[in-house]
Every structure is written in structure tokens, then in C-alpha cells.
TrEMBL record:
One GO CC term on file: cell envelope
Domain Thioredoxin: 44-191
Compartments where found: Cell envelope
Biological process according to GO: cytochrome complex assembly
Keyword tags: Cytochrome c-type biogenesis, Disulfide bond, Redox-active center, Signal-anchor, Transmembrane
Pfam families attached to this UniProt entry: AhpC-TSA
Lineage top rank: taxon: Bacteria
Organism: Cryobacterium roopkundense
Name this polypeptide is given: Alkyl hydroperoxide reductase
Entries under Gene3D superfamilies matching the protein: Glutaredoxin (3.40.30.10)
GO molecular function terms attached to this record: antioxidant activity; oxidoreductase activity
InterPro entries, per the entry: AhpC/TSA (IPR000866), Thioredoxin-like_sf (IPR036249), Thioredoxin_domain (IPR013766), Thioredoxin_ResA/DsbE_sf (IPR050553)
């Protein structure tokens, strides 16, 4: 009986579809796992613990979760040679400018580049918000791995005023209005 249940479980597992695993198996050698743009919202009552992080920015400054206490934080995982990251950069910067001094801040997490490449990207795309350089230790990715992980690059997370993940866009932000709504809704939440 137990062997039959194990065999059935293996068969059923083989039938399920995992888009990220499928992308890997296709062998396209993209060099990255692309998200599908799916949006996940988490009800306030179902959010996990606050994310605690510290990292070094591209200008050598220390950036920490405590710096953003009491405000909504939009965290974007990216790297300079990522085509979807380049495609969404202008939209993210526009939203950053829109929400600056209006209840939300933006923070990038560069997962592959050193400071010079990150700063060149910022200059090219007019990015004014800081980024943590996560290439050497992966500390930022690790900090977020327990709640709703950034499984693809780019991934954009919206953290609530308590520092908990409220929403995730897995892949390129193709509709800035959706991200804008996620930010507005999170800013409007009563603490």
C-alpha cells in the first residue's frame, strides 16, 4: 500500500507544471530565470515577519531596514545586463519620483554587479534611488528568502510600514499602473 502511494505521488508530481523548472529544462541558456510578471498580494493578516536587512550600497554607504521604518519600501532585485531590468528601469524611476515624500521609498538590490557597473546603469537610466550590492554575499536575497522569495530577476517587492512583504511582482514590471496601485494600497493601510 505504501509503495503504491509513493508511486502515485511521484506520478502526480511529474504531471505538475513549474514554469521556472520548465524554463531551465528548455535549455535556452538565457543565463537567468525570467519571471512571468505574476502579481502576488498578501493580506495584512497573512504577512510574515518584518524583513531585517543590512547591505552596502553602490556608493559604499550602509543601507538597512531600520532606515525605512514606518514607511512603505519598494525593493527591486536587478542587475545591469538583465534585459527586463533595463526595460522596467524608467517606469521604476518615475514611480520613485512620484512616491518620494509621499509615503514610499525605493531600494534596488543588485544581484550580480560591482559598484562601477551599478552606477553606470543608474547614470544611463536616470535612477536616483540607492541599490545594495548583493553580489558578494547574497545577504539581501537570503533576508527575503523566508517570506516570499525573489525567485527571478527582476522581482519587485512592496513592503508595508512594518517591513513585511505585502506584494510581489515576479518578473518585469510591464504595467506600472499595477505597481502604482500596489504601492498606493500599501501606503493607505492603517498601521
Amino acid at each position: 500500500m505504501t509503495v503504491g502511494l509513493v508511486a502515485l505521488a511521484l506520478v502526480l508530481t511529474g504531471c505538475s507544471s513549474d514554469p521556472l523548472a520548465d524554463q531551465y529544462r528548455e535549455g535556452s541558456s538565457k543565463g537567468f530565470i525570467a519571471g512571468d510578471g505574476s502579481v502576488t498580494e498578501i493580506a495584512a493578516s497573512a504577512r510574515g515577519e518584518a524583513i531585517d536587512f543590512t547591505g552596502i550600497g553602490e556608493n559604499g554607504e550602509t543601507l538597512a531596514s531600520a532606515d525605512y521604518a514606518g514607511e512603505v519600501l519598494v525593493v527591486n532585485f536587478w542587475y545591469a545586463s538583465c534585459a527586463p531590468c533595463r526595460a522596467e528601469a524608467a517606469d521604476l524611476q518615475k514611480l520613485n519620483a512620484q512616491f518620494e515624500d509621499n509615503g514610499a521609498s525605493f531600494l534596488g538590490v543588485n544581484v550580480r554587479d560591482q559598484a562601477a557597473n551599478a552606477m553606470a546603469f543608474n547614470d544611463t537610466y536616470g535612477i536616483t534611488y540607492p541599490s545594495v550590492l548583493d553580489v558578494n554575499d547574497g545577504g539581501m536575497q537570503l533576508a527575503f528568502s523566508g517570506s516570499i522569495p525573489p525567485n527571478a530577476v527582476p522581482t519587485t517587492l512592496v513592503l508595508d510600514k512594518q517591513g513585511r512583504v505585502a506584494a510581489r511582482i515576479l518578473g518585469q514590471v510591464t504595467s506600472p499602473s499595477i505597481l502604482e496601485t500596489l504601492i498606493r494600497d500599501t501606503v493607505a493601510e492603517v498601521s
